[in-house]
Amino acid sequence: FLSIEHCIKEIQSEVNKQCPDVQLQTTTDCFEWLTNYNYNTSKTPSIPDGEMIKFLKTLQDLLTDEQNHEEMIFDLLWDLSCQSSISFPSTLSGTSLHFFSRTSLHSVEDHSSMDVKSIWDDIRLHLRRFLVRKLQSYNEINNSQQKISLKNQCLQQLLFLYPESEVIIKYQNIQNKLLAKLMQNFFPSYSRDSNLDIIVHGCQSTMLKLYSTIKEDFNILCEILAPSSTVKFIKETYLDTVTEEVAKFLENFCELQFKENAVRVVKTSKSSSKHRGAVHALG
Asked: What is the model's pTM?
């Protein structure tokens, strides 16, 4: 087996070859160099604007002119980001694509960066619509584990394209629509024949669906958001709305019952008056 000292000497020799400006004379020098070396993994390769525009324009044309290429294009972008360390911005307006460009900062007139940004924004928008449609369709899946897995993947893909805050707002809008449908089933229209016991019994299945949806979202978001943000999402999307709707329902139901009781009291009073009148007439 090679000794540690031998390995260090090998590293020392290789560094001296590869980095002429760094000459490591001793083992101590080598350790200090390794300790202080800045492993900058976030450094991204610089790509000329012309090549980047040509590449993005090809993707844009594919998305515009061809159908069902979204998955392929997204996978390509994802692989470029993960394997080739090429970064694609996930922020919206005002994004600087400086890491794509080798153009001098002192250029008198350079529209290439804006061209890259414009094309990239168009690609993102197309992919976002595709992913949002998928995300919405997953609400129709009955298998909870499958739904959680697919939604998690889809949200991660959206986070590749857009900042977290915007992705969460978009997802919240999708879930708000789902909740609105559940609430329509949960709270039937009020009528004079409404019976609270029957209504509550009929709402049990809807409440189970609501609980299942909240649990699914918790499992999805806890892998993406901080715990406090996950709780905030659940509270704002579901709990606040449900609390408000239940309060409205009970208020309207009680109001209806009070009116019904008042009508019965009046009818009973009139009936008693007629009965007393009939008794007096007989007397």
From this structure: 0.66
